[in-house]
């Protein structure tokens, strides 16, 4: 890292010459981009979110812990975003669904955040893990049976993408048609492109219909649990709690499954250690979280006053993006070889502080079951294209493979359900 003083953007507003965050996620080797940014800026780098809109990308492990743990200085409430207040970011920006303020747990700090977080924590703790595991295992086998006779499949569209959707939506009592409508809306939302706001509106409309239908016939699903929860004061808060839990769980779990399968197909060391039993499933999943956290970049924190972070002058209202993948690769805390540290869960894939992911246990259960089922039933699965031809979905936030086309011989029979 250079010892010279870090640069400061002229007038703090120009984005000329800045690296685009979308270009980082689209890079074949984002860690090389992080290294270049560290050499130029240090652990906190100025980047472009969309043309004319800049933010700070926090790439340092300790710096990221600082902003996630200090909500009195770094707020999650996007109403503090200076560029939105001054009109630099227009109301119809594609960044809106991921960065604009919502009246939910993500946009709150302090006691308001704790009140809105309790229904999520209670909902997660109410999940019957044994029942969920059996259900997910059956879903995975059904999906594999659906493409078994073809001898080929797309393990993103026909497997990784469907499993969280089926599992999470079933917890909320959604029917099949509603589940696939949600999926289309979520794809647009996380893309942060021109269709993101329309996708977000449709996503919320579907959930509102489910919520209204459930009101007259409560059951044991999470929608009913949110409707009855004393900490949720009105329908808007119930809806937004559903939005948070489903959107975050679907996208991140899809990416975790897809990235694990991708490494199995393209990294001989990783695949050999998994299939040879030298790397347990959970250790393998944590290696993926070190190397490819589902949220590559997490929006956002907003500075409540002028301050300093990582050698940079942060001004009141500045947006700070959590560089989760970059922080995991911070050379000050990690040697870059996650395979040398099986069992190490000090990665920041779940973020940290009060807003850390509340659903890491069911997410791991779903992902582990999906990977174990694929390992057992598709022992000779092979990637149908060169590894360097695997494309990624456009997004400044995530690096999800568009598809994983594979071939295989006849799948093995399903394993007996765990806990049966």
TrEMBL record:
InterPro entries: Cyt_P450_B, Cyt_P450_sf. Transmembrane segments: none annotated. It comes from the Bacteria. Belongs to the cytochrome P450 family. This is Cytochrome P450. It comes from Streptomyces thermoalcalitolerans.
């Amino acid at each position: 890292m250079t010892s010279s003083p870090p640069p400061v953007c002229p007038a703090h507003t120009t984005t000329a010459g800045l690296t685009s965050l979308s270009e980082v996620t689209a890079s074949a080797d984002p860690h090389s981009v992080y290294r270049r940014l560290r050499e130029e800026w240090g652990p906190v780098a100025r980047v472009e979110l969309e043309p004319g809109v800049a933010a700070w990308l926090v790439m340092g492990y300790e710096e990221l812990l600082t902003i996630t743990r200090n909500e009195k200085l770094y707020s999650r409430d996007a109403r503090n975003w200076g560029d939105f207040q001054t009109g630099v970011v227009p109301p119809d920006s594609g960044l809106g669904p991921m960065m604009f303020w919502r009246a939910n747990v993500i946009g709150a700090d302090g006691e308001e955040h704790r009140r809105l977080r309790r229904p999520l924590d209670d909902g997660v703790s109410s999940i019957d893990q044994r029942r969920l595991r059996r259900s997910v295992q059956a879903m995975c086998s059904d999906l594999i049976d659906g493409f078994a006779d073809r001898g080929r499949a797309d393990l993103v569209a026909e497997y990784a993408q469907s499993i969280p959707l089926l599992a999470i939506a079933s917890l909320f009592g959604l029917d099949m048609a509603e589940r696939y409508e949600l999926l289309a809306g979520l794809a647009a939302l996380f893309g942060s492109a021109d269709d993101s706001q329309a996708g977000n509106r449709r996503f919320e409309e579907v959930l509102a219909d489910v919520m209204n239908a459930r009101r007259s016939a409560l059951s044991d699903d999470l929608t009913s649990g949110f409707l009855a929860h004393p900490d949720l004061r009105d329908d808007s808060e119930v809806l937004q709690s559903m939005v948070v839990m489903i959107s975050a769980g679907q996208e991140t779990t899809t990416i975790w499954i897809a990235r694990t399968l991708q490494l199995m197909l393209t990294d001989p060391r990783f695949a050999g250690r998994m299939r040879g039993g030298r790397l347990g499933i959970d250790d393998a999943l944590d290696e993926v979280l070190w190397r490819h956290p589902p949220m590559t970049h997490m929006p956002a924190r907003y500075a409540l006053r002028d301050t300093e972070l990582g050698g940079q002058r942060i001004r009141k209202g500045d947006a700070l993006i959590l560089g989760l993948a970059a922080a995991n690769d911070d050379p000050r805390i990690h040697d870059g070889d996650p395979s040398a540290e099986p069992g190490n869960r000090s990665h920041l894939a779940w973020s940290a502080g009060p807003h850390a992911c509340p659903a890491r246990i069911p997410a791991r259960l779903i992902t582990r079951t999906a990977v174990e089922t694929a390992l057992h039933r598709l022992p000779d699965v092979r990637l149908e294209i060169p590894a360097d031809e695997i494309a990624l979905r456009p997004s400044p936030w995530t690096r999800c493979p568009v598809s994983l086309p594979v071939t295989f011989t006849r799948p093995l029979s399903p394993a007996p359900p765990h806990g049966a």
